[in-house]
Amino acid sequence: MNALRNLDTGNPVATTLSNIIQHTILGSISGFFSESTARQPKKVFIAGATGYIGKFVARELVARNYTVVSFARERSGIGGDASPEQTRRQLGDSEVRFGDVCDIDSLNKSGIRGERFDTVISCLTSRTGGIRDSWKIDYRANRNLLDAAIATGVKQFVLLSAICVQKPRLEFQRAKLKFEKELMDSGITYSIVRPTAFFKSLAGQVEALKNGKPYVMFGNGELTSCKPISEADLARFMADCLEDPSKQNEILPIGGPGKPLSAKAQGELLFELLGNTPKFRKIPLWIFDLIIPVLSMLSKLFPKLEDRAEFARIGLYYASESMLVLDPVTGLYDGAATPSYGNDTLREFYIRILKEGCAGQELGAHSIFH
User: Fold this and answer.
1) Which of 164, 192, 238, 321 is exposed most, by the fewest CB atoms within 10 A?
2) Is residue 240 part of a domain?
3) What is 284-325 written as a DSSP string?
């Protein structure tokens, strides 16, 4: 720098030359360090990383060059069948840490470890939809995650919620809404993602239809509709929340491409792809009017039946409510108002699983929802 300053001797040409050299060299050095800083990958902590959506989110963020830490149970997957080694393979190049998000000490010591993260993502969801499990996971575990995030200075929180919380009648919906409100009130930058149905949730009858059985639906099959979204498209949408300011500090309902599909239309699509004549079995909704009161009454005498009554209420809900945006004025579901995202279609998904089978699409405990 002294050599550069010595060029400035009062001569206008020398002064100009000195300025050009200083601006060029110093600007290049400054730009190098600025770009290096900007290119530092954000560090993301994901809870629920071994869930159906969580593992796709982890892989998507790794593909976008984020530094990803995935937090999982020692025994994860359906029925806890996945070993730590299998979990690591599932989550690719993310760093996998094991612990219990329901235990704040475990979360802090084994998960966060006092490190600085830019973003926390929660893909946590109740495994059964039972009353205690809903409040344990959908609320308490998420609250633990938010508390840990705030304590360590995390600036952003992305939450995987569900579109069905618009009309809360079930415990897992109430638990999700309680946490959503606390997240919005926390002061942290948030994105609350409320997807419609997953492709996985619409695959439950594929094998039955392949074996010649009828498609089971409630009523005439037109009572409910949804705009299902693939796991990969949903993962991309959630990753976009880290980068797109328009998706921050917002509640984000999201569906897949195309028009809403009724239950009957889903069945017709499967029969078409199978080349079979459509056969439907219609189940009347009034069957729930018999089951729910009986189970509710018995649960007062036998508390272990409490969740059984809740499962029946869940069944009624999904049999009678659409997974679309709810118009608060009319009280009607609005397919046109339900945003679409991605390119994966239900038709493509059905073609794939009809050819390859349903491995990886098992619902496990979540089968109660469908």
Assistant:
1) 321
2) yes
3) -THHHHHHHHHHHHHHHH-GGGHHHHHHHHHHHHHHH--BSE
